Write a sequence for this structure.
RNA sequence: GUCCCCAUCGACUAGUGGUUAGGUCACCACUCUUUCAAGGUGGCGGCACGGGUUCGAAUCCCGUUGGGGACGCCA
């Protein structure tokens, strides 16, 4: 009878949340939650040279934002702690010593210089460096005396010389590697801290992790970890290796290109829910053509069987589309709150009703950062070419435009109420009186009000948002503008 | 270089021996319409290649090619 499902997300604190890492966390969370299991956060900070200030907080914050609430972790505790590897040093040391006893590892006193030389020689011979096993031949007495002497040492994994090692991956199936291909990696460093190669095994076992979910860059490393479990006589977890996410140019998503971290996307105006939904689909599908999933729906629908083996290219276009879907689903007030900071970047006027504006903008926004460009005409009428008034489809030319703008101006000036309905009725009455096509009246007005080829609403919408005074001013400007171009 | 893995429209993918190879994004057209969007309808577009196995292969096997990954006292 297997115990409850326990999965873990084990990032190293690098200072940002890689989008691929977030997806791994997502899958780990989903697998745990759909089985009523536990999702655990563990910080892998065994490389003290890589320490980055505040990096752990980025991890906490991002997981929180994404809704991937963990059941155990450094900041919330749990009965398998500590959850920060640098605080588990003694555990690794005990287990390393134990592993040496069991024959799965050995002390190594080789200097960094000797290793460097070996590496160089191998390079010259165009071979790949593998440790030559020198210290594995040391006698027990010599090891004892050098240890007693205080010689610096590391602990290396002892790999069987012949044979092969296999395991079964839940996604990729049987993986088999010749033991001769496996390097005898350092398990415990000279600073007393473990390498990933050791710590992941110890911690996953000690924390009762049932499913190891990680990127498939570990696929060919895992046999080494299996050997470790077997040396200890421990039961191995299930392995779920997930394909990588790569860039449109086929390269790895890099931290430096500014398109790899969660914050990069968040700051560009993508919604957290959309990001989570989108990355879930990179390498996983529900097999039923559904694509829009809230986190809770993902939890229900997720399955290891839906995971794909081949790498997935991150497609910003599809993320944009999906983000648009999420934006349109927002309640008006919600959208307005999110849009406000962006409005304020482009609009200095204080008499604009943002809610009215949001009604127009929400439908036309794919990512929040589009907003300033959509509303840029509100503060100041942009310069535009008079030819904008000539529109074949709207059946307008300069003369028609003038003949529409002038009476519209006169009627609108008389208008007491500036409600959408009243503006509409006034203009449509005029259209009827003059026997015009709707567009012949409305296109020139829209043009005069926005100065743009496209605007986040039609003539009446814009008039309403701009207010009576500004609307009349811009129409007058339009009239003068057209006249100046037509009068010879 | 050695080893591991992968291979369906431009992208994400469904497909597990018999399908007109399906869906989504993007793209194009049409439609709706006071612009643009959004919505609706339709279209373009794919099984990398070569051998097998089989009555029959996108599906199974082998090879080729292409791609990704691993080979640190990084994770």
């Amino acid at each position: 009878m297997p115990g409850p499902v326990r999965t873990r997300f084990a990032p190293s604190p690098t200072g940002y949340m890689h989008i691929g890492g977030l997806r791994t966390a997502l899958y780990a969370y989903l697998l745990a939650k759909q089985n009523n299991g536990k999702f655990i956060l563990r910080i892998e900070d065994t490389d003290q040279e890589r320490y980055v200030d505040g990096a752990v907080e980025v991890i906490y914050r991002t997981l929180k934002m994404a809704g991937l609430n963990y059941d155990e972790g450094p900041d919330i505790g749990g009965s398998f702690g500590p959850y920060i590897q640098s605080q588990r040093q003694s555990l690794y040391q005990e287990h390393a010593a134990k592993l040496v006893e069991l024959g799965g590892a050995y002390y190594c006193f080789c200097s960094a210089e000797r290793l460097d030389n070996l590496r160089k020689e191998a390079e010259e011979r165009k071979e790949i460096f593998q440790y030559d096993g020198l210290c594995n031949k040391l006698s027990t007495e010599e090891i004892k005396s050098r240890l007693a002497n205080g010689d610096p040492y590391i602990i290396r994994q002892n790999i069987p010389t012949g044979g092969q090692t296999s395991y079964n991956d839940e996604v990729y199936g049987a993986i088999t590697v010749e033991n001769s291909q496996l390097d005898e990696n350092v398990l415990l460093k000279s600073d007393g801290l473990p390498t990933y190669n050791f710590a992941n095994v110890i911690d996953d076992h000690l924390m009762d992790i049932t499913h190891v979910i990680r990127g498939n860059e570990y696929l060919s490393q895992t046999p080494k970890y299996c050997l470790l479990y077997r040396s200890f006589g421990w039961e191995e977890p299930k392995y779920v290796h997930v394909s990588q996410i790569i860039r449109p140019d086929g390269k790895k998503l890099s931290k430096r290109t500014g398109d790899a971290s969660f914050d990069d996307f968040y700051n560009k105006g993508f919604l957290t829910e959309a990001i989570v939904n989108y990355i879930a689909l990179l390498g996983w599908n529900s097999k039923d053509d559904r694509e829009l999933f809230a986190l809770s729906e993902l939890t229900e629908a997720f399955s290891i069987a839906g995971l794909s083996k081949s790498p997935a290219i991150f497609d910003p276009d599809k993320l944009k589309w999906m983000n648009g879907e999420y934006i349109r689903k927002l309640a008006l007030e919600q959208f307005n709150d999110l849009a406000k900071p962006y409005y304020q970047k482009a609009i200095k006027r204080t008499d604009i009703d943002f809610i009215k504006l949001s009604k127009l903008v929400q439908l036309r926004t794919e990512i929040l950062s589009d907003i300033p460009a959509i509303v840029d005409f509100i503060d100041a009428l942009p310069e535009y070419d008079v030819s904008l008034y000539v529109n074949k489809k709207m059946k307008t030319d300069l003369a028609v435009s003038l003949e529409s703008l002038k009476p519209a101006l006169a009627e609108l000036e008389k208008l007491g109420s500036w409600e959408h309905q009243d503006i509409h009725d006034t203009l449509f009455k005029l259209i009827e009186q003059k026997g015009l096509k709707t567009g012949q009246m409305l296109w020139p007005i829209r043009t005069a009000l926005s100065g743009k080829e496209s605007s986040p609403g039609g003539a009446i919408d814009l008039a309403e948002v701009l207010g009576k005074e500004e609307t009349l001013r811009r129409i007058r400007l339009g009239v003068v503008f057209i006249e100046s171009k037509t009068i010879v």
User: Anything to note?
Assistant: The longest strand of chain A covers residues 164-169. Residues 468-486 of chain A form the longest helix (19 residues).
